[in-house]
Amino acid sequence: MIDDLKINETLRERWYAKGYWTHDTIADIWQRAAVAHPDREYVCDDTGSRLTYGEVDDKAGRVAAWLIAEGIKAGDVVTLQFPTWAEFTIVYVAVLKVGGVVHPVPRNYNDVDLEYAMNLVGTRAYLSPTFSHNTDYEAQILSVRGAVPTLAAIAVLDKQAPSHSELPTFDDIYERFEPLREPVPVSADSVACILPTSGTTGKPKQSMLTHNNILFSERVFTRELGRTQGDVMFMPSPLNHATGFFHGLISPLLLGGRAVLQQDFRPREAIELMNAEGVTWSMSATPFIYDMLNVLDAEDGLAFDTLRLFCCGGAPLPPALIERAARYGVLLCEIYGSTESCPHVFVPPEKCAEWNGAWSGVPFAGIEVKVIDEMGNEVPRGAQGEEISRGPHMFVGYLNERDRTDRALSDEGWFYSGDLCYMDEEGRIRINGRKKEVIIRGGENISAREIDDDLIGAPGLASSATIGMPDTRLGERICTFVVPSDPAAPPTQDGLIAYLRERHVAKRLWPERIEIIDEIPVTATGKVKRFILAQILKERMEAE
Question: Which of 11, 62, 430, 531 could form a disulfide with 177 if both were Cys (CB 3.0 to 4.6 A apart)?
């Protein structure tokens, strides 16, 4: 049982008193939904799988019964390694039915990654496909199980290939076990899920979120975005991330609605899938909608038939992108948060056009946000500082890393995001990028993301990412990596500067060096791996 949680007791009492937290677990919510509408479709994917609430409940109940038979108890961690498949719903519900902790890991974890992650969290059971995306997951788990002393149970889903070992398959379990009918009781303040952060360097931290954290977050998320049971969610993001798991699957559950999954994002196929399934809203990183808009611009007659709201996370939204989406009948809504702090700042849909990318949003109801300086003091409205927040959504620490927890999460419940922002007199917030994404040029702080936003739409430019370039005089100068739309005619520094000058972009934001690259390296959630670009730049400069 995981018990090293950091929850301020005064805040806990306040949130229960206000109804932000309740005594319901996610399993309790699931149970009611499955009873209320067993024949309603809950999820489908682009592999042809479709599952109703009743079908998920039955199969998850059988997997839950097997987990109990294997000795899995409330509070035990179960590691899931799955593509973005509908069957993920079966395993996450099964784990929550036994009072376990869901630990989804990236599908591209190799044996070394998997061994490290499972030992870090003390995995008691592991569930995966036999095979997918050229990866033999069955062979991989067999190769590392002896190095994970806590691991007691393994099962594999033979969806794309038959099992080649003695491991039980899901079909075996479905046949052998009767469903567990009632969830194992656990506290709503216990850990429901452990998610690795999407950091760009080093080993990821393991963020712990309780049932109450997740349920509050998704309730306020769906309510303030005006979502209803009739809405259909499209989710192309990996299910081992908060975006994919919580927004893609928990939000529709709370609504009694549907989710549509795409295992490998391809923009044209995504548009066709959304149209076929009647998708009305989505949540993902900005590059997803950017790529789809490029397809729509290139193909006459193709359109979004039913999509009306696309929530973007990971980076501030440039006005040009908002305007492009509006031409196709889609509101782009900026959402801000992190694995630790869930989404807690948003642009209300009715303000998307009016604010047009000028603001990242306002806090969701029940969440506090402050902007502070290096000394921890609040800065005047309009001045830049670090964004900190607290509320019922907040994670309860990094597993087995109390020192890192204490550095990020104060005793009073404030989470230090490491993101730069400012707030106006009306409480509107503008996120300007991470501290580590700031270029310090001659003592002036320059946001790398702001430069990239300004370059969107430049002739010959498919995409870009800006970093600081070491400079003996100024400390750093501005270096922009660019991906040409036509490799035979890459954009030049002069051409990009001319584009920026025409748009009255300040000279201090002009790139001082251009590096051509085939592809910008990004994480699974679309965040630029700037440390890789820094290494590439270092090597190129040394070769000059």
Answer: 62
